[in-house]
């Protein structure tokens, strides 16, 4: 059984046994009275939900979601503020069966309600205070109230901190720019060198090819010559010829020694 | 074999002369003797005689139908002539050597020979040197080896610059560009065009420079290159008469990668502040006319 099914079933059961829910009956009963109480109760519930949302927003880690929730909270607060005004009008109206004290208490209730609405955190001030430490905290309700007196010298004066910060920023930026210039010059030189080298190598390619063919031809010639030389050597210095040479040499020596002996 | 080179020379001469007893000249023996004589003369530093011996040896090789050896001898003779500073002979000998190389079908050594001749004559007879360079480039181009011609074109252009004939120098750079285009050597091509523009500017010829720039911008490779940007900066600086900008461009890395001669020209560039100011005045007048 899925969660959805469980939820539906629980709702059905609750609806069935609603008549036994004391708080709810009291609510329904109370709100049956007049426009004031109805509106009051609805505003009350709205405030509860908004407070709940504000709590969620404050604990939300995802900045985008937090911002969205805060925006919703603010929207609801604005709406509730309007409703409170309506409520105030209703509170002043004379209603049947209501005593003077009760009417006064209703006005107090309305004021209390308005305060409660204002107190609801909507993430606006807190963020402003944390991020812009030196600047003044902006109002919750944005009012464009720049009057002429404000536009005097003091209004646009930078604080010491901010002007120092600006100076430092400029200095650092200048240093960065200088460094980048140096790098870019180096890169330019490298690029030109690389391009020249590229062209030089391109020039060498056909030369190398030619050299390769010529060297190949030379190697094959050399091989042929070597083979022929070897064949010649083999023919010239074959062992048979060598033995014959030695034998003949011995014969000649023998003849010479014989003649020598004969002469002596 | 006598070791005295003079005797060898005379003997070889006798071997080549046709007389009643000798019906055909013995070129092989004669050539050998000539070569040996030449070596002997060189060893004893008699360069004049060595040169003559080499000439004759080369002729002997020609008779023996070996143009390669003949050409080599001719080159050695030319080198000796260079040492002796007999410039006409230098040119002649190198030319002959080059022709012999062409006979062998070897274009590279032929153009190398002419290149050596041109380099030797650069100082003394620049016009001849230019002619030799041009011939060398033609030989290479005929053989389809344009890439080797780049250096020759550059040398020729620098000779023209020394002679202060800037239009001719720029023409040669443009020819370099054409040769580079054939080989897809875009870097050399763009550098050649930038050099041409700088040469025109140095020659006080802003209009020519601009025309040259417009022509070169038609070429894709140049259009996309750094050299194009540098050229356009230079020309705008000239048109606005902004001397600071001209100097900055002249010291930029793109210009510093060109030939030495061109770098020197570029550094001197605002040739006479007159030109820049003139252009400035011209611009002002134009503005007035428009209003």
From TrEMBL, chain A:
Compartments where located: Membrane
One example GO MF annotation: SNAP receptor activity
Annotated coiled-coil segments of the chain: 180-228
Transmembrane segments: 242-260
Chief location: membrane
PROSITE patterns in alphabetical order: SYNTAXIN (PS00914), T_SNARE (PS50192)
Keywords, in A-Z order: Coiled coil, Membrane, Protein transport, Transmembrane, Transmembrane helix, Transport
Keyword Coiled coil annotated: yes
InterPro entries: Syntaxin, Syntaxin/epimorphin_CS, T_SNARE_dom
Topological category with respect to the lipid bilayer: Single-pass type IV membrane protein
One BP term from GO: vesicle fusion
Assembly behavior: Part of the t-SNARE complex.
Annotated function: Vesicle trafficking protein that functions in the secretory pathway.
Family per record: Belongs to the syntaxin family.
Protein name: t-SNARE coiled-coil homology domain-containing protein
Top-level taxonomy: Eukaryota, Viridiplantae, Streptophyta, Embryophyta, Tracheophyta
TrEMBL record, chain B:
Key words, A-Z: ER-Golgi transport, Membrane, Protein transport, Transport
GO cellular component: SNARE complex
Molecular function terms, GO-annotated: soluble NSF attachment protein activity; syntaxin binding
Protein transport as UniProt keyword: yes
Compartments, record wording: Membrane
Pfam families recorded: SNAP
Alphabetized InterPro entries for the sequence: NSF_attach, TPR-like_helical_dom_sf
Membrane topology: Peripheral membrane protein
GO annotation, biological process: intracellular protein transport; vesicle-mediated transport
Family: Belongs to the SNAP family.
Protein name: Gamma-soluble NSF attachment protein
